[in-house]
Specification:
The chain has one domain. The chain contains four helices and seven strands, in the order αβββαββαβαβ. The termini are far apart.
Length: 148
């Protein structure tokens, strides 16, 4: 199933059409670069780590944007990918261009986000260190930042 999804995704990319991605990672041939970098969010749910990578913008993201399971890569450069598991987020990060900036945030700004059942947090230190090491290996700039 994943191979056929990747072929459909690749066909849509080559056709230059807006894209809805339904796989666990960015397609390998995606030529995505973010002018303002990316934001990374994480939370634990059902004893699993969930991650969302989204294009950086000048506005705060809503809870729905962050936790939605619907992944999007548009021809305008908007990327929003939600995955489960540390290996899955490493795979997504591996598909970004070298030199990209990523800010790993503790969660969305409270004034922008209605209360919900999701408790945003960083994974344990060994997982954060593992993701940091991976981003260094693939040439990305990761900043882990708490919200103030």
């Amino acid at each position: 199933m994943k191979k056929s999804v990747h072929l459909v995704v690749l066909g849509v990319i080559l056709a230059g059409l807006p894209l809805l991605v339904v796989s666990d990672a960015l397609p390998a041939d995606t030529n995505v670069s973010a002018m303002k970098g990316y934001e990374l969010y994480s939370w634990s749910e059902d004893d699993q780590w969930h991650f969302t990578l989204v294009t950086g913008t000048n506005r705060n993201k809503t809870l729905e944007e962050i936790i939605s399971r619907e992944d999007v890569i548009s021809d305008t450069g908007w990327v929003r990918v939600q995955v489960t598991g540390v290996n899955a987020i490493k795979s997504v990060l591996s598909e970004l261009h070298q030199g990209e900036d990523i800010v790993w945030l503790a969660g969305p700004r409270l004034e922008q986000t209605p209360p919900g059942d999701i408790a945003f947090m960083f994974p344990p230190e060994h997982i954060v260190d593992s993701v940091k090491e991976h981003t260094e290996q693939v040439g990305l700039n990761l900043l882990v930042q708490t919200l103030s």
